[in-house]
Amino acid sequence: MDCDQQLLSMLSKLMRETKGAGSQVQKVQPPGSQVRRPHHSTSKQASQQHSKDQKSGNKQTPMAFKAVESHPKPANKAHNHPSVHHAHQASGGARNQRKPPHSTSGPKQAQEESVRPKSAGAKGGQQLRPPQQQFKHVQMRSQTICAKDRIKHRDQSEPRRRMPMAMSDVARESSTMNGIQKQQRPRGRQPFQQGKGKNDFPIRSENDSQQHHQRPWTPWKRGNAHQRQDTKPAAKEFSKPNQPEPATLDEEEFMQLEAMAPVDIVMKLASPISGLIEFLKEENTEKNLIASFLKILSATFNCKSNQHSLHYLLELIKKSMFLKITLPKFIMSALTEVLPEAHLETSRYLGYTLKLLCQLITVYPASAFVEVSLLATLVQSTSNHMQSIGFPVSEETGKSLENLHQMVAFLQERQKYGNLKSDTYTYFVKPEGNEFRHISIYPTYADVHLIDKPFVRPNIINEEYPDTATYLDIQFRLLREDFVRPLREGISNLLSCNQKDLRKGKTDDIRIYFDAQVLGPLCTHTGVYYRVRFNVKQLKFVQWESSKRLLYGSLLCLSKDNFETMLFATVAHRTVRELMKGIIHLSFTEDSRLDLVDVKPTDSFLMVETIAYFEAYRHVLEGFKQIRDDEIPFQKYIVHCQTNIAEPKYLKGTSQNYTLEPLSRSNNFNVFDFAKWPSKERLKLDESQIQAVQTALTKELAIIQGPPGTGKTFLGLKIVSVLLSNINIWKSATGSPILVVCYTNHALDQFLEGIHTFLGTGLVRVGGRSDSKILADFTMHALRKQPAFRRNLPKYMKCMYPALIEGREEIELKIESLAVYLEASAKGVLKLGILSEYIQPNHLKSLQVGSQYNPSKRYDILEWLKLTSAHTFYFASKATQQQSKEDDWDETASSVTEGDLGNLSDLIDEGGDDDELIKVTVEAELIQAERMVDEDDLQKQIQNARARRAALEKQFLALNLNEDAPPLKSQSKNQDGGEWQVSKESMAKMKRKTKHQLQLTDIMSEDEATKRVNIWDLDMVDRWRLYRLWLSKYQVKIKHEILKYEQEYQEIVNRLAELRTQEEIMILRQSKVVGMTTTGAAKFRNLLQDIQPKIVIVEEAAEVLEAHIITTLSSACEHLILIGDHQQLRPSATVYELARKFNLEVSLFERLIRMEVPFVRLDYQHRMRPEIAKLITPHIYDKLKNTESVKKYENIKGISTNLYFIEHQEPEDNIKEGKSYQNSHEAHFVKLLCEYFIQQEYHPSQITILTTYSGQLFCLRNVMPKRIFDGVKVCVVDKYQGEENDIVILSLVRSNKQGVVGFLRIPNRVCVALSRAKKGFYCIGNMAMLAKQVPLWANIVGTLRENNQIGPSLRLCCQNHPGTDALVSTAEDFSQVPKGGCLVPCEFSLPCGHKCTLPCHPFDPEHIEYRCPGPCQNKCKVGHPCHKACWQICGDCTVKVEQVIPGCGHRQQVPCCVDPWRFCCQEPCEKTLDCSHRCLRCCGDSCTEKCPSRVEMALPCGHTRMIKCHQREEAEAEPCLANCGAPLSCDHPCAARCFECSALPFHAVCPVSCAHPLPCSHPCKGICGVACPPCAQPCGNCCPHGRCPGSCGQPCQPCQRPCTWACPHAKCTRLCHEACDRAPCDQPCHLTLDCGHPCIGLCGEPCPDKCRVCHVEEVTEIFFGGEDDPETRFLQLQDCRHIFAVKEFDTLMQQSEADESSASELPLCPKCSAPIHNNVRYGTLIKNVLAKIERLKVKIVGDEEEVRCRRVCLENFLEEKEELNEYYPRETLDLQFQLQESNISLHKLTTLGHKINLLSKVANLKSKERELVSYRRKMMQEEIDLLVEKITKKRSQFTSPELGDIEREITTLKQQNKLYFIQNPKKRDPFPPAPQPFFKLLPSLTGDATYKAWKEERINRLKSKSADLI
User: Fold this and answer.
1) Beta bridge partners of 741
2) pTM of the model
C-alpha cells in the first residue's frame, strides 16, 4: 500500500475511535515542566473526569500526538528549557540509562505515571486510545515513516524531515536529530540558524547521545533550582552583561503583539528574548494561546518587508514540537467541541492554520512536506466534521484548503519521480496565461537565444490606457526589454562574428572581457562578493578613470560554452587601480551562486557586460511585480488621463484652517478661495509662480513645468515650506513624512539644503552618496548612530544585533578561510599536508618515504612533480626518464599574469600627474555616485577582507606562482650546504610548466589511481594527472562548504539589513521630510511602502522614467507634485528603438501634458540675459519672459559681445574606446579662452566649460593645468542640468565630412546646453554642418547671423587700450593677447623706480601683486650693492672680504655680514692626534675624536684588513672575511671564509667542479669535495632491440633476446648481451644503394649512406691512407655516422683491445672522440668493455643482496643504540625513514652508515655531558650541536678529510671531559636533566597517524628480518 494511503487510513481510524469514545483527552504534562492552567478550568472538573475514566476502564494514556511526552526531546543547551535534565536522561546518556521507549510496563512506567499531574484542567476532552491500539498505531507510524524514507531520495546536503512521530519514533528521533542537523543543512532559503556555538560549529559533548546545538544569546527559561543547577555551565558560556529575561508568550503578550504592525510583529518574534522558542517547545499549550498565536502569525504573511526574518520564524516552527505535536492536537480538538460558539471559533482558526501551512510548504517545499501533508489531512478531516454537524467552513477557508491539497499533490508527484530534493527551488510559480508578474527579472536562456519573440507593446502617449493591468504590463515589459535586448543582440552578434572581430571587441551592445576567472569570495556587510580576474591585454586603450565600463550595478553574463549555460552577476565594487590589473568584485545572483559549485578555479569564461544599468531596472521591476492593480494611486489620471483633478483627500473638511505663514501672514483662510490669497507683491512671486503654488497646494496631482531659469527649485522650496506649516492637517498618527525625490544626488542635496534653511529638525536624507556638509547630520547613517535614538530602541531590537553580528563574523571567518584554500589551489602546488586527506594511504606513504632527497612530508610533493631546484641531482628513477617530454611541454598559459598587463602608462592619458591637472566632473564618476545608494564603505570592508585573507594565503602553497623567490628555503641548498643558484629563467620556466599543468583538465580516474602502487614509478604526465585528481577532490569539498556557509551568511546579512530597515522606518516615521534619489527610491521601495508618505514631490520629473515614479508611490499617497521640464533632458533609455518607436523616453510628466492633463508653466526666467534667452525663445519655447534683474547684468570684460558662436571646419578625433569623440582644435581654443577670462579678473568659479562628449572632457583635462584653472568647472552637458554660471563656454565637438551630428540633433539636449549661462555665453563648433543637418540649429544660426553673433573669429578688446582689438579663431591667435590685454608694453611706474616689463594686462592694474624683476637698488652699510631681484627681500650682505681671524691669525674671505670672531677658519688643522695621525678637520673646528685614517691591521689568523684608525678594538672582535686559502686534500685552495673554517675543526668541502671521467665516459657533474655520484644522464647503451631506459649510472638490464648479427656466410648463436661466437665477414656487400650505385661496405653490416660516386670527396678523404683505392671497403659508425676504411680501422680496434689501460673504456671515434656503443663488426670488443663497466656499476651501486644485508645491519644498529633514541629522537627517526626508502643505493647506505656511526659516538659523548655542571654543560652543548649539524646535514657522502676531522673533534671532546673530571672530581651535577623518552616524543614529532603506521610497519619488518636471519 502506498505510504500516503497508509497515512490516510491511520488518520481516519484515529478519528473514528476519537468520535466513538465520548470521553475527553486529558492533557499530561511532562515531568518538570510548567503547567499552563486555563482560567475556566477547575480541579473539581478534572477530578470528576478522572473518576469517569477510571470507571470506564480507560487508562490515562495519551493519544498518538501525546506519546512523546514520556520521552521528551533533548533540549538545546542555549534554549534554557527546563527539561534539559530530563532530555539527558531520555537520550540514553552515560549516567542515566533508560528502557527502550516502546516499553509500556514495569516500575519505571508506574513511576512516570505518578509524576504526572492528575489534573491538567483540560477544556472538553477526548477518549484516549487503548494501549493495544496505541502500540499498534505506533508500529504502523514507524513503518510508514520508514517506507517514506526508503523511497525518498533526498539531497545529501539536506536534513531528513519526518512526520509527527509516535512514542518510539520521537524517542529515537530525539537522540539523533541534533547529530543529523550538525552534519546536514538544507540548501534552500534558510533563515539564520541559531543552533550553533561560538565558532558556528556544532558543540559536541563526550557522549554522542548528549549532543546539542547552541543558539546565541537565548536566555534561560525559569525553572526549579535543580534544573538551573544542571544547566548553569551552558548558561555561563553565553551570558552577556545586562541581558534581559525572555518574555513569556501569554495572553497579555499576544494582545500587545496584536496591536503592533505586521513588520514589527515579525521583528519582535524573531528576537532572542521574544519567548517564541520556549513557546514552540511546549507540548501542552493552552488552546486559546495557540489560537492567538496562529491569528497573529497569519497577519504577518501579507507583510512585504522583513521576509527573511519571517522565513526564520517559519524555520523555527518547522523544526519545533509545535508543528509535530501541538498543532495536530489543536486541529483534532475541534472534533470534540459541542458548543456552537466553539465551532465558529474553529472555523475561523482553521483559516489561520491553512495560511501557516501554505506559507511553510511554499518556503520549505522539501523539508516541510511530510508535516504539512499530515496536517492538511487533519484539517480536511476537521473540515468534513464541521460540515457534517452543520458548521461549514468559510468559502475563503475552503479555497485555501483546496489550494493546499493541490500544492501537496503537486509535491507528491515531484517526490514520486525524485525531483523533490531541495528547498532552493520554487515549485509553485506557474505562469497564468501571459501574466507579467511571473516573468523572471533576470535574463533567461530563452531571452538570450530568442526562443520566442518578446511580447512588447509601445507606451501609449496619445490616449488613455484601457485598464491598470494593461498599463502595468506595458511598462514592465518595456523596461525589462530595455536591458535584455542589448544583451541578447550583443551575444547574438558575438556568436556569429569571426574570431578576429571578436578579439577586437566589435560589438555595440555589449562589452567583452576574455579569460575571466572566478577567484574567490569576499564577505562584506551587504553580502558575499566574488573577485573575478579578466584579461586586460586587449583593453590597454581603455581610460578606466573615465570609462563607463564595469560601473556599479552593471549586469555581467559569464559563459564558457557559447552561452549554453550562463552565470549572471552585477558589479558590486570597482576601483581604477584594480581594473587596470583586471580585477573586479561581483555579486552573483542566487541561482548563479548555486552553480558556482561546478566552477573550477582554472575555468576560463567569456564575460560580457550589457550597457544597461541593471540594478535600477531590478528594483523597479521587482516593485512592479509586487504592485496590485488596485494599489496604484491616481489611476484616474495616470491610467485614464482624466483632466478634472480633485483636491487632496487630507484637505477635505480642513481647507478653512490653512496658513501661508512662510509666504505671508495669512492664517486660517480657505485655501481654495484664490480671491482671498495675498497679492504677488506680498508673496514676492510672479503670476505664473502664484498659479503654480495654488495648483500644488490644492490639487492632488500638480504638474509644474519650469523652463530654464524660471526657478523650479525656488518654487519647490516655497511649496514645501507651506506644506510643513500645515503639517497638522496632513500628518497621520503613524507618521507620514513628505517624500522628496530628485534625479541626481547633486539636485537632491541642493533641494534638501534649501529645506534645511527653514526646517531645523525632522529632515532625513536617505542614501550615502551626499557631498553636502550641511546634510551630514541628517543622513540616515548619522541619525541611526545618535545616542538618543539608540537608547529608545525597543529591547527586542537591541538584543538581535549582538547575536546576528557574532554569527556573521564567525561564518565570515570560515568563508574567507575556505576561499583562501580554494584560491591558493589555483596559484600553485598545494602542500602535502593540505592534500593528505584526499590521497590514498598507500600513495601518501609512498610520497613520504620515496624521495632520496627529502623524506619530509612538507616538501616532497615538489620533488615528486620535479619542481625543486636540485631534484635531478638527488633523485633518479628508471621509470621517470622522460626529460625530452618535459622539455617539450607547452609553456604558454592563457591566464593573465602580472607581466602580461603591460605598461600601465599605456592605459592612462598623457598629460602628467592628476595632481597637476584640473579636476573635471567625470561622467562615469557621476553615474557611479548616482548608483551607489548604500551607506556602507565597501572599499574599506573589501580591504579588511583581503587583509584577513593575505595572512592565511602563504600557509598553503608549496610553490607559489606569484612569488619570484625559489619555492623553498631548504630546497635552495645543495647536499653540502652550498647555495644552489636558481636563475630567473629556470624559475620562470618552472612556473610556466606548473601553470600549464594546473590549467589542463585531464584527470586520473579513481580506479586508475587505485591500481597504481608506487607513484614514484609514474611518468610526469600521469603524475600531474594524479595530482589534479587530488586537487579536484579538494576543490569540490571546499566549494560545497563555501556554498553552505554562503547561504547562512546571506541569511544573517539579510536579517541584519531588515533590522536596520526597521530602525530606518522608526526614524522616517518621526521625520517631516525624507529625501531620496530616484535610484534610492526604487531600491528602498519596501521602506516607502511601510512609511506610507501622503505627499510626494518629484523634482526633475521629466528626466525620470515613468516606471520609476510609479514604484515610488504607495497606496497611501494622496498628493503628488511633479516639477520639471519635458523640453529639456528626457529620460535615458538603453535601446534607441524602444526610446523612440515605443515611447519609452516619454516620461509620466510629458505624457500627462500631452494628454492635456492640467499643468502650470512658469513664464519668467531669472537666469539669462535677454540675448542669451533668445537662443531658446521662440526656437524651443514659444514664450519666455525676462525679469528686470537679468537686464541689469554688466557686460563681459575683454570681449566685444556677451554672446558669440565661433565657427570652424576642423575635423573631430575619434576615440577607440566607446562611442565618444573629441576635437583637439576646440579643446585648445576653449582652454585659452578660459585663461583669457581669468586674466580679465574673473574668478575661476565664475566660469564653466561644457562639452557634449565625455571624450572631449578628458581632452580638456589634459591641457588645463591645475595651477591656472583650479576652480573652473568642466562638465558634460547632460550632467549640468539645473546648474548655472556667469560665463559658460560650450564645445560642440562634432565636425566631419559625413555630416553626422549625433545627439546634437536632440532639441532637449540643445536646450540644456544653450541655457546654462547667466552673463556670457560662448560656443565653438562646426555651425555650418549643424545648420545643414538640424532645422533647430538652422533657426538658431539664422538668429545669430541677424545679430552678428556668429563668425569664424572672436573679437577680443583690450580694457586698457580701447580700440586695440584682436581677432582669434585658433589657439595660435591668442598670442596677440599674451596677458589678456594687447601687445603694447605696460610700462607702469613702480614705487621702486622701475617700470612694469609685462605686455598690457588687465589684471592687477595697481601692480600690487606684481614682482619687479629689475636689479635691487639697495646697498649694505659698507656700500656693497644688493645682487637680488627687486621684488626679493635683500637679507644679509654676502659679499666676501678679506679678514684676519682672531685666535689663529689666518687670513680668510669672510662674508660682509659675519663677525670674524664668529667665523670658522677653513684652513687645514695642523695639530697631531694621540694616534700620531694629523687632524683632518678645519682650523676653526674642534679636533676629531675618532681618527678616520685607514690603516692596515694584522689579524690573529695571519690575514690583514684595512680599517679606520679608531676601529682597532672593534675590528679585533669581528670575524675575518678573507678567503681561507688553505690547501685541501685535492690540492685546491679552500674557498670558505676564514672565520668559517676557524670556528670549525675542519675545512669546507671543495666546491670546484669535478669533471672526472666516470666509467661510462661521461664527465662527473658533481663537485670536487665529494665522491663522484652515479651518472644521472640517460644511458647510451643500445642494441637492435632497443635502448636502455635507465640512467647511465644504474646497472643496465642485459638483453635476453638472440643476437641479430647474421649474413649469408655466418650467424651468431648467442644472446644479444653476450660476446658473439662468429668472426667478422670480409666479403663485399652486393647490395645497391638508393642512388643506384653499389654499396661500399661489407657483408652483414649496415650499408654506409655514402657512395663512392655521389660522395667521392667525403669517401676518398685521406685519414688512415688508402681511402682512394677503388677496392677499399668502408664501414660507418652508427653513433656518429663517420666512415672509415675497414682494414685500417680493424688495426686500430685491435690495438685498442690490446691496450690494458683502456680495457674498461669504450673505443672512441678517431674523428670526434664519441664513444662507440653500437657496431656489429666490433660488437665483441664493445660487449666485453660494457660488461666490465656494468661490473663497476654494480660495485658502486651494490647488488640487491648486499644492499639488503647492509640495510639490515644498519637498522639493527639503530635499534640497539638506545642513546640515539634518547638524545636525538628526531635525527634517529629521519635516519630510519631514509633506511626504508625503496630505491636506496649502496652509495647512500654507506653515507647513512657514517652518519649513524658518528651520531652514535656523539650521543655517547652527550650521555657523559649530563654529569657536568650547568655552565660547563652549556659550553659542551654548543660544540656538540656544531658536530651534529655537520653530521646530519644533507649530503651525498662524506669525504675522507671530513670523516677524519669529525673523528678528531669527537676524540678531543672526550679527552676534555675526561680531563675535566680528573681536575674537578666533586663538580658533578647531582640532578642531571632527564631526557624525554623516545616513545613519548615520537607521536608529537610525526603525528599520531604517522606514528601508528610507522610503528606497525617497523614491527612487521623486524619479524621479517628475524625470519631471514634464521
Assistant:
1) 1076, 1098
2) 0.63
